[in-house]
Write a structure and sequence with these properties.
Layout lengths: L5 E5 L5 H10 L5 E5 L11 H17 L4 E4 L2 H14 L4 E2 L2 H11 L4 E6 L1 H6 L1 H6 L6 E6 L2 H8 L5 H16 L4 E4 L8 H8 L4 E4 H16 L13 E4 L3 H12 L7 E2 L3 H7 L4 E6 L2 E4 L28 E6 L6 E6 L3 H5 L1
Parallel strand pairs: 1-2, 1-3, 2-9, 3-4, 5-6, 5-7, 7-8, 9-10
Antiparallel strand pairs: 11-12, 13-14
Helix pairs in contact: 1-10, 2-3, 4-10, 8-9
Length: 343
Protein backbone atom coordinates (compact mmCIF):
# COMPACT_ATOMS: atom_id res chain seq x y z
CA UNK A 1 0.00 0.00 0.00
CA UNK A 2 1.16 3.56 -0.71
CA UNK A 3 -0.48 6.88 0.12
CA UNK A 4 1.79 8.77 -2.30
CA UNK A 5 0.12 10.49 -5.27
CA UNK A 6 0.21 9.51 -8.92
CA UNK A 7 2.09 12.18 -10.87
CA UNK A 8 0.56 13.21 -14.21
CA UNK A 9 2.38 15.55 -16.58
CA UNK A 10 1.36 17.31 -19.80
CA UNK A 11 2.31 20.43 -21.71
CA UNK A 12 -1.09 21.92 -20.87
CA UNK A 13 -4.67 20.97 -20.06
CA UNK A 14 -4.90 18.04 -22.49
CA UNK A 15 -3.45 15.56 -20.02
CA UNK A 16 -6.49 16.10 -17.83
CA UNK A 17 -8.31 13.70 -20.17
CA UNK A 18 -5.89 11.05 -18.91
CA UNK A 19 -6.28 12.26 -15.33
CA UNK A 20 -10.07 11.96 -15.66
CA UNK A 21 -9.78 8.34 -16.82
CA UNK A 22 -7.38 7.53 -13.97
CA UNK A 23 -9.76 9.04 -11.41
CA UNK A 24 -12.65 7.03 -12.84
CA UNK A 25 -10.72 3.75 -12.65
CA UNK A 26 -8.81 4.52 -9.44
CA UNK A 27 -11.08 6.79 -7.36
CA UNK A 28 -9.13 6.17 -4.14
CA UNK A 29 -5.82 7.41 -5.57
CA UNK A 30 -4.57 11.00 -5.12
CA UNK A 31 -3.24 12.82 -8.19
CA UNK A 32 -0.57 15.49 -8.53
CA UNK A 33 -0.92 17.11 -11.96
CA UNK A 34 1.68 19.35 -13.64
CA UNK A 35 0.61 21.36 -16.71
CA UNK A 36 3.43 23.26 -18.40
CA UNK A 37 1.03 25.77 -19.91
CA UNK A 38 3.65 28.52 -20.09
CA UNK A 39 5.40 26.53 -22.82
CA UNK A 40 2.40 24.95 -24.57
CA UNK A 41 2.20 23.76 -27.22
CA UNK A 42 5.21 21.45 -27.25
CA UNK A 43 4.56 20.26 -30.80
CA UNK A 44 6.43 22.99 -32.75
CA UNK A 45 9.42 22.97 -30.38
CA UNK A 46 12.70 21.14 -31.12
CA UNK A 47 12.90 17.68 -29.56
CA UNK A 48 15.84 18.70 -27.36
CA UNK A 49 13.81 21.57 -25.90
CA UNK A 50 10.79 19.33 -25.33
CA UNK A 51 13.03 16.85 -23.54
CA UNK A 52 14.43 19.56 -21.25
CA UNK A 53 11.02 21.01 -20.41
CA UNK A 54 9.45 17.61 -19.82
CA UNK A 55 12.24 16.37 -17.56
CA UNK A 56 12.13 19.63 -15.58
CA UNK A 57 8.40 19.11 -15.00
CA UNK A 58 8.82 15.47 -14.05
CA UNK A 59 11.70 16.36 -11.71
CA UNK A 60 9.19 18.53 -9.84
CA UNK A 61 6.67 15.69 -9.58
CA UNK A 62 9.29 13.21 -8.37
CA UNK A 63 10.55 15.75 -5.83
CA UNK A 64 6.99 15.95 -4.48
CA UNK A 65 7.10 12.21 -3.78
CA UNK A 66 4.90 10.65 -6.47
CA UNK A 67 4.84 6.86 -6.62
CA UNK A 68 4.31 6.66 -10.37
CA UNK A 69 4.72 9.04 -13.32
CA UNK A 70 2.24 9.29 -16.18
CA UNK A 71 3.55 11.17 -19.22
CA UNK A 72 0.15 12.33 -20.48
CA UNK A 73 1.67 14.06 -23.51
CA UNK A 74 2.37 12.30 -26.79
CA UNK A 75 5.09 14.77 -27.79
CA UNK A 76 6.92 14.33 -24.48
CA UNK A 77 6.50 10.54 -24.60
CA UNK A 78 8.13 10.49 -28.02
CA UNK A 79 10.91 12.84 -26.90
CA UNK A 80 12.04 11.47 -23.56
CA UNK A 81 10.33 8.24 -22.46
CA UNK A 82 13.61 6.30 -22.33
CA UNK A 83 15.34 9.16 -20.51
CA UNK A 84 12.56 9.31 -17.92
CA UNK A 85 12.67 5.59 -17.22
CA UNK A 86 16.44 5.74 -16.74
CA UNK A 87 16.30 8.95 -14.67
CA UNK A 88 13.68 8.08 -12.05
CA UNK A 89 13.25 5.32 -9.50
CA UNK A 90 9.47 5.24 -9.94
CA UNK A 91 7.52 3.49 -12.73
CA UNK A 92 6.76 5.58 -15.82
CA UNK A 93 3.57 5.08 -17.87
CA UNK A 94 3.14 6.76 -21.27
CA UNK A 95 0.40 7.29 -23.84
CA UNK A 96 1.73 6.17 -27.24
CA UNK A 97 1.85 2.39 -26.89
CA UNK A 98 -1.56 2.04 -25.16
CA UNK A 99 -3.28 3.96 -27.97
CA UNK A 100 -1.45 2.07 -30.71
CA UNK A 101 -2.31 -1.25 -29.10
CA UNK A 102 -6.00 -0.32 -28.93
CA UNK A 103 -6.06 0.86 -32.55
CA UNK A 104 -4.50 -2.36 -33.84
CA UNK A 105 -7.15 -4.33 -31.96
CA UNK A 106 -9.98 -2.12 -33.25
CA UNK A 107 -9.22 -1.88 -36.97
CA UNK A 108 -11.21 -4.06 -39.35
CA UNK A 109 -9.47 -3.15 -42.59
CA UNK A 110 -5.92 -2.69 -41.33
CA UNK A 111 -5.97 0.98 -42.42
CA UNK A 112 -5.21 3.07 -39.34
CA UNK A 113 -4.65 6.82 -39.11
CA UNK A 114 -2.99 8.93 -36.46
CA UNK A 115 -3.14 12.67 -35.90
CA UNK A 116 -0.79 14.54 -33.59
CA UNK A 117 1.57 17.45 -33.19
CA UNK A 118 4.41 18.00 -35.64
CA UNK A 119 6.93 16.65 -33.12
CA UNK A 120 4.91 13.49 -32.43
CA UNK A 121 4.35 12.70 -36.10
CA UNK A 122 7.96 13.50 -37.05
CA UNK A 123 9.25 11.23 -34.28
CA UNK A 124 7.52 8.24 -35.92
CA UNK A 125 6.69 6.97 -32.45
CA UNK A 126 3.36 5.54 -33.64
CA UNK A 127 4.97 3.98 -36.71
CA UNK A 128 7.34 2.15 -34.38
CA UNK A 129 4.50 1.18 -32.03
CA UNK A 130 2.46 -0.54 -34.78
CA UNK A 131 5.41 -1.88 -36.77
CA UNK A 132 5.05 -5.39 -35.39
CA UNK A 133 1.35 -5.60 -36.25
CA UNK A 134 0.77 -7.64 -39.42
CA UNK A 135 -1.26 -6.11 -42.23
CA UNK A 136 -1.61 -2.67 -40.62
CA UNK A 137 -0.95 0.43 -42.72
CA UNK A 138 -0.53 3.70 -40.82
CA UNK A 139 -1.30 7.12 -42.28
CA UNK A 140 0.05 9.99 -40.16
CA UNK A 141 -1.04 13.63 -40.28
CA UNK A 142 0.13 16.52 -38.09
CA UNK A 143 -2.59 18.89 -36.85
CA UNK A 144 -0.65 21.54 -34.91
CA UNK A 145 -3.37 24.20 -34.64
CA UNK A 146 -5.78 21.84 -32.88
CA UNK A 147 -3.87 22.31 -29.61
CA UNK A 148 -4.23 26.08 -29.82
CA UNK A 149 -8.01 25.78 -30.14
CA UNK A 150 -8.22 23.49 -27.11
CA UNK A 151 -5.94 25.66 -24.97
CA UNK A 152 -8.27 28.59 -25.74
CA UNK A 153 -11.31 26.50 -24.85
CA UNK A 154 -12.71 26.60 -28.42
CA UNK A 155 -14.15 23.24 -29.44
CA UNK A 156 -16.71 24.26 -32.08
CA UNK A 157 -17.26 26.85 -34.79
CA UNK A 158 -16.90 27.41 -38.52
CA UNK A 159 -13.17 28.12 -38.38
CA UNK A 160 -12.42 24.91 -36.48
CA UNK A 161 -14.63 22.87 -38.81
CA UNK A 162 -12.82 24.21 -41.88
CA UNK A 163 -9.46 23.46 -40.31
CA UNK A 164 -10.54 19.91 -39.42
CA UNK A 165 -11.76 19.28 -42.97
CA UNK A 166 -8.38 20.37 -44.35
CA UNK A 167 -6.33 18.41 -41.82
CA UNK A 168 -8.34 15.19 -42.09
CA UNK A 169 -8.70 15.04 -45.89
CA UNK A 170 -5.62 12.78 -46.35
CA UNK A 171 -7.07 10.32 -43.84
CA UNK A 172 -10.38 10.24 -45.70
CA UNK A 173 -8.49 9.62 -48.93
CA UNK A 174 -6.59 6.78 -47.25
CA UNK A 175 -9.97 5.29 -46.22
CA UNK A 176 -8.88 4.63 -42.63
CA UNK A 177 -11.40 2.90 -40.41
CA UNK A 178 -9.61 3.68 -37.14
CA UNK A 179 -8.10 7.01 -36.11
CA UNK A 180 -5.72 7.48 -33.18
CA UNK A 181 -6.06 10.82 -31.44
CA UNK A 182 -2.31 11.13 -30.95
CA UNK A 183 -2.46 14.12 -28.63
CA UNK A 184 -4.20 14.21 -25.27
CA UNK A 185 -5.76 17.57 -26.19
CA UNK A 186 -7.69 16.05 -29.08
CA UNK A 187 -10.42 14.15 -27.15
CA UNK A 188 -12.13 17.48 -26.53
CA UNK A 189 -12.39 17.80 -30.31
CA UNK A 190 -14.06 14.44 -30.92
CA UNK A 191 -17.24 16.25 -31.96
CA UNK A 192 -15.70 17.99 -34.96
CA UNK A 193 -13.28 15.14 -35.75
CA UNK A 194 -16.09 12.58 -35.64
CA UNK A 195 -18.30 14.79 -37.81
CA UNK A 196 -15.65 15.09 -40.51
CA UNK A 197 -14.49 11.46 -40.43
CA UNK A 198 -17.96 9.91 -40.20
CA UNK A 199 -19.58 7.39 -37.91
CA UNK A 200 -17.86 4.41 -39.52
CA UNK A 201 -14.43 5.53 -38.26
CA UNK A 202 -13.45 4.48 -34.74
CA UNK A 203 -11.71 7.22 -32.76
CA UNK A 204 -9.10 5.91 -30.32
CA UNK A 205 -8.06 8.04 -27.35
CA UNK A 206 -5.13 7.00 -25.23
CA UNK A 207 -6.76 8.15 -21.99
CA UNK A 208 -8.70 4.99 -21.10
CA UNK A 209 -5.90 2.64 -22.16
CA UNK A 210 -3.30 4.65 -20.25
CA UNK A 211 -5.48 4.50 -17.14
CA UNK A 212 -5.62 0.71 -17.52
CA UNK A 213 -1.83 0.58 -17.76
CA UNK A 214 -1.61 2.74 -14.64
CA UNK A 215 -3.90 0.32 -12.81
CA UNK A 216 -1.77 -2.66 -13.88
CA UNK A 217 1.48 -1.03 -12.77
CA UNK A 218 0.06 -0.16 -9.35
CA UNK A 219 -1.28 -3.69 -8.96
CA UNK A 220 2.02 -5.34 -9.90
CA UNK A 221 3.96 -3.10 -7.52
CA UNK A 222 1.54 -3.35 -4.62
CA UNK A 223 1.20 0.44 -4.75
CA UNK A 224 -2.55 0.86 -4.33
CA UNK A 225 -3.74 3.29 -1.67
CA UNK A 226 -5.87 1.78 1.09
CA UNK A 227 -9.49 2.29 -0.07
CA UNK A 228 -10.61 2.52 3.56
CA UNK A 229 -8.75 5.81 3.99
CA UNK A 230 -10.59 9.15 3.67
CA UNK A 231 -11.17 10.47 0.13
CA UNK A 232 -7.94 11.52 -1.60
CA UNK A 233 -6.65 15.05 -2.09
CA UNK A 234 -5.81 16.02 -5.68
CA UNK A 235 -3.35 18.82 -6.45
CA UNK A 236 -2.75 20.78 -9.64
CA UNK A 237 0.25 22.85 -10.75
CA UNK A 238 0.54 25.05 -13.85
CA UNK A 239 3.41 27.17 -15.14
CA UNK A 240 1.08 29.55 -16.98
CA UNK A 241 -2.01 31.49 -15.90
CA UNK A 242 -3.68 29.37 -13.17
CA UNK A 243 -7.06 31.03 -13.73
CA UNK A 244 -7.10 30.10 -17.40
CA UNK A 245 -5.98 26.56 -16.57
CA UNK A 246 -8.76 26.21 -14.00
CA UNK A 247 -11.46 27.55 -16.33
CA UNK A 248 -10.54 25.37 -19.29
CA UNK A 249 -9.37 22.39 -17.26
CA UNK A 250 -12.74 21.92 -15.58
CA UNK A 251 -14.16 21.00 -18.98
CA UNK A 252 -11.79 18.03 -19.00
CA UNK A 253 -11.82 17.01 -15.36
CA UNK A 254 -14.98 18.41 -13.85
CA UNK A 255 -15.40 19.72 -10.30
CA UNK A 256 -12.40 17.78 -8.96
CA UNK A 257 -10.30 20.61 -10.40
CA UNK A 258 -11.05 23.34 -7.90
CA UNK A 259 -8.09 25.67 -8.42
CA UNK A 260 -4.45 25.60 -9.45
CA UNK A 261 -1.13 26.52 -7.86
CA UNK A 262 1.31 28.45 -10.07
CA UNK A 263 4.56 26.55 -10.68
CA UNK A 264 7.83 27.56 -12.30
CA UNK A 265 11.04 25.66 -13.15
CA UNK A 266 13.98 26.92 -11.09
CA UNK A 267 15.95 28.19 -14.10
CA UNK A 268 13.17 30.63 -14.98
CA UNK A 269 12.58 31.46 -11.31
CA UNK A 270 16.19 32.57 -11.00
CA UNK A 271 15.80 34.78 -14.06
CA UNK A 272 12.67 36.47 -12.72
CA UNK A 273 13.83 36.72 -9.12
CA UNK A 274 10.68 35.13 -7.70
CA UNK A 275 11.73 34.08 -4.19
CA UNK A 276 8.91 32.01 -2.77
CA UNK A 277 8.90 28.23 -3.09
CA UNK A 278 6.86 25.31 -1.86
CA UNK A 279 7.88 21.69 -1.57
CA UNK A 280 11.24 19.94 -2.00
CA UNK A 281 13.54 20.31 -4.97
CA UNK A 282 15.10 17.81 -7.31
CA UNK A 283 17.64 18.27 -10.07
CA UNK A 284 17.45 22.03 -9.59
CA UNK A 285 13.68 22.28 -10.13
CA UNK A 286 11.43 23.99 -7.60
CA UNK A 287 7.69 24.42 -7.43
CA UNK A 288 7.15 28.12 -6.82
CA UNK A 289 4.50 30.54 -5.69
CA UNK A 290 4.28 34.15 -6.82
CA UNK A 291 6.34 36.59 -4.78
CA UNK A 292 4.49 37.35 -1.57
CA UNK A 293 2.50 34.13 -1.77
CA UNK A 294 3.43 33.26 1.79
CA UNK A 295 4.95 29.80 1.26
CA UNK A 296 7.95 28.57 3.19
CA UNK A 297 11.18 28.01 1.33
CA UNK A 298 11.74 24.60 -0.24
CA UNK A 299 14.26 22.02 0.84
CA UNK A 300 17.52 20.93 -0.70
CA UNK A 301 17.91 19.79 -4.28
CA UNK A 302 19.18 16.39 -5.33
CA UNK A 303 22.76 17.50 -5.81
CA UNK A 304 23.08 20.04 -3.03
CA UNK A 305 22.55 20.59 0.67
CA UNK A 306 20.14 18.72 2.87
CA UNK A 307 17.05 20.15 4.47
CA UNK A 308 13.58 19.29 5.69
CA UNK A 309 10.70 19.26 3.25
CA UNK A 310 8.78 22.52 3.43
CA UNK A 311 5.11 22.23 4.38
CA UNK A 312 2.43 23.33 1.98
CA UNK A 313 1.08 26.84 2.69
CA UNK A 314 -1.45 27.08 5.48
CA UNK A 315 -3.48 29.43 3.29
CA UNK A 316 -4.54 26.53 1.07
CA UNK A 317 -8.21 25.71 1.30
CA UNK A 318 -9.54 22.18 1.06
CA UNK A 319 -12.91 21.79 -0.59
CA UNK A 320 -15.23 18.85 -1.06
CA UNK A 321 -17.10 18.32 -4.31
CA UNK A 322 -20.00 15.92 -4.78
CA UNK A 323 -19.70 13.97 -8.02
CA UNK A 324 -22.82 14.14 -10.15
CA UNK A 325 -24.70 10.95 -9.47
CA UNK A 326 -21.63 9.34 -7.96
CA UNK A 327 -22.57 9.57 -4.32
CA UNK A 328 -18.96 9.77 -3.14
CA UNK A 329 -17.26 12.91 -1.94
CA UNK A 330 -14.00 13.76 -3.61
CA UNK A 331 -11.82 16.04 -1.54
CA UNK A 332 -9.80 18.42 -3.66
CA UNK A 333 -6.96 20.64 -2.58
CA UNK A 334 -7.54 24.19 -3.68
CA UNK A 335 -3.98 24.80 -4.80
CA UNK A 336 -3.89 28.56 -4.50
CA UNK A 337 -3.18 31.03 -1.77
CA UNK A 338 -5.89 33.47 -0.79
CA UNK A 339 -3.99 36.20 -2.61
CA UNK A 340 -3.82 34.17 -5.82
CA UNK A 341 -7.53 33.45 -5.68
CA UNK A 342 -8.36 37.15 -5.32
CA UNK A 343 -6.28 38.11 -8.38
Amino acid sequence: MSDAPIGVFDSGVGGLTVARAILDQLPHEPLLYFGDTAHAPYGPRPIAEVRRLALDAMDTLVAEGVKLLVIACNTASAACLRDARERYDVPVVEVVLPAARRAVAATRSGRVGVIGTVATITSRAYDDAVAAAPDVTLTSVSCPAFVDFVERGTTAGRQLLGLAEAYLAPLQEADVDTLILGCTHYPLLTGVIGLVMGESVTLVSSAEETAKDTYRVLARGGLFRDPELPPPVHRFLATGDPRSFTRIGRRFLGPELAAVLPAQPSGERAATGSPATVGPTAAGVRTTLPAGGGAAAGSADRAGTSGAQAPLPLSMAVGTRERDGGGDNVTTAVMATAEAVRQ
